[in-house]
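S2.1 Query sequence (Nonribosomal peptide synthetase)
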Amino acid sequence: YTSGTTGKPKGVMISHRSLATSSIAHGNAFLMDVNSRVIQLASYAFDLAVLENLTSLVMGACVCIPSDTQKQDFVGSVAAFQANWAFFTPAVARVFDPSDFKTLRTLVVGGEAITKKELSTWRSTVNLILAYGPTE
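Output structure tokens follow.
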């Protein structure tokens, strides 16, 4: 489904070919490979889950799926799984300090604009990639 920004979400058919090629393109653009340990945080109903799950598998990465209980200790979950790749919204990135995430190497941020302060806070410690959703 689309995000519904025009008032009502609409179902959109996506072919296997489109999904496969976009997974490879996104995986390459977002520095995901066989050494990536991707922390899976998005709801399965949200399109980001395709990136965290399907793209990770297509790229040969490890998908790290914390339980609901583990997700309550966000920093601990990333550490326990030794996750080195994550997608945060800027609002989530704003709450944490990069030093909280010792294993994180690549951070993709999207869903809203990132501020200069957040950009400077994170870019010196991780490969910071700015991304928006597929319909923005």
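Strands lie at 37-39, 62-64, 85-88, 106-109, 127-130. The chain has a mean pLDDT of 89.
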